[in-house]
Write a structure and sequence with these properties.
Rossmann fold, five-stranded mixed β-sheet, 14 helices, 14 strands, 38% helix, binds NADP nicotinamide-adenine-dinucleotide phosphate
Length: 348
Amino acid sequence: MDGETPALSFSCVIHPLRPKEDVARKYPFLARVLPVSLIHFCSRFWPPLYLSRIRGVRSAATGKEVEGVLLACPFTARRMLTLPPRTVYAKLVQTGRLAERLGARLLGLLAFTSSVGDGGVTVSRQLDVPVTTGRSLTVATVIEALEVLAQARRLSLDSVTVAVLGATGSIGRACALCLAPSVGHIVLIGLREGRLAQVAHEVSSVGKGQVHASTQIEAIREADLVVSATNAIGPLIQPGHLKERAVIYDVAIPSDVSPQVSRERKDVMVIAGGVMDVPGEVDFGFDFGLPPGKAYACMAETMVLALEERYESYSLGKQIQVEKVHEIARLAHKHGFRLTELSAIRSI
Ligand SMILES: NC(=O)c1ccc[n+]([C@@H]2O[C@H](COP(=O)([O-])OP(=O)(O)OC[C@H]3O[C@@H](n4cnc5c(N)ncnc54)[C@H](OP(=O)(O)O)[C@@H]3O)[C@@H](O)[C@H]2O)c1
């Protein structure tokens, strides 16, 4: 870029996941003295935070470089699930206004900030900057990862059973719809029978294999490959739930998988999913928990749109469109974003 600093184009909003550790990244002293319960409580009154400037995202196709800012909505995941949505929306709008004041042209609502209520719609109505949740690219990583995993296990997708935990959710439903044309047997698992039946109907109508639905997590025991995408705040998948040699691709943040699974089930592979390698020499200026050069797919979607100069509310609301999953996957690939090698992310 001949020493020229690119203008700010995008912003990514994250939030604390592990209250003590995450608060320590910004306020080491406070993290030492505050108990977790007080961190949850205080998060309600804390203003949105500027964390860092993101530099060095460079397209492998065009050489164009974009810069962004990393902002934090102070609510923990637990707070976002338990507070009334309008309280969470207000804090997200405040965070969005901070992004606007800084000059961002696109706002990425990441992880739980996009799961709350209507998936960004209300927040976006109160802002001038377009809003994306990054979920379309998250779904694309799931589809690609399952293909890679099936190949590595010498399995053909049309002969395997794939379970989708959190199938009534935004990411879970879209994953099932994208997988249905190629997978032999899909097991959909959710909490609400009625909504689950609706999703099962949609998935059956685009698929060629069998589709079953269950409200019991034990149903994942049938699956060779498990996609996990719930918004639960504690781990759901336990060692006894899994088939021998099952692979779990877990995109949930925080994780849906109990740490006991890796300890007690050496035959099972657990992958922290939805992670991508970013093209260029990206410097996030802040440690948000991933190894250098890697981003969550939802962050990556915001960057891809900035590289394309498509400042639009791309993935907004709870319904993800399958066409957009394919389109954003193609654009990400064009600019050099790659699914992180699965062996590298196994233990993140
Ligand atoms: N890796 C990434 O780049 C990335 C990007 C975006 C999001 N995420 C993460 O992905 C996850 C899903 O996001 P989303 O936007 O799809 O959320 P969502 O639309 O809120 O869906 C979550 C779904 O999980 C279901 N659920 C909750 N507890 C469950 C349980 N015990 N058993 C079965 N289903 C359960 C919920 O059911 P009800 O509707 O009945 O409550 C809901 O349908 C979140 O953890 C989010 O943080 C990751």
